[in-house]
Prior knowledge:
50% of the residues lie in helices and 11% in strands.
Amino acid sequence: xxxxxHTCCGPCSIYPLHVLRxxxxxxxxxxxxxxxxxxxxxxxxxxxxxxxxEHEKLHMIIKDDYDxxxxxxxxxxxxxxxxxxxYSSRLRMxxxxxxxxxxxxxxxxxxxxRYQRHDEIRRLGEQIAQEYxxxxxxxxxxxxxxxxxxxxxxxxxxxxxxxxxxxxxxERYYSTPKAPKL
Length: 182
């Protein structure tokens, strides 16, 4: 099957790519991640995807549309719902690109991360697939978590410490200061 794989980042894409290729699929990567903040982080991740693609001889379609403003506008009023928007906007863009370029199916490296809402990604992927008249290729890649880490370290990919958005960066690095004792 000819599959377009949305790639959230290089490290999360290696294991799913290996699994899909081992199963006989023809895979092309698709980079679209307007959620990543700050811009330096976006550029680091884009570079890591290019490095991974070169190492793996993976053809990439890169939609270098860093529309952070659209992401923030869509999630600022309800940050607690940001993941749903983030998943659906990126899966929707992947589905549109898959249809445009004649792929049989699309999937996402988001299905590799044990930190993502896996059931929601699957549900949204299947819903969006119906809207676009294409197959959402579902596979749970989480069992390969450690193998993916090993492979990404082996080729010295930049490994990010948070999912990408400003809210997850805050959750990762900021802790509420404790009031001094009087």
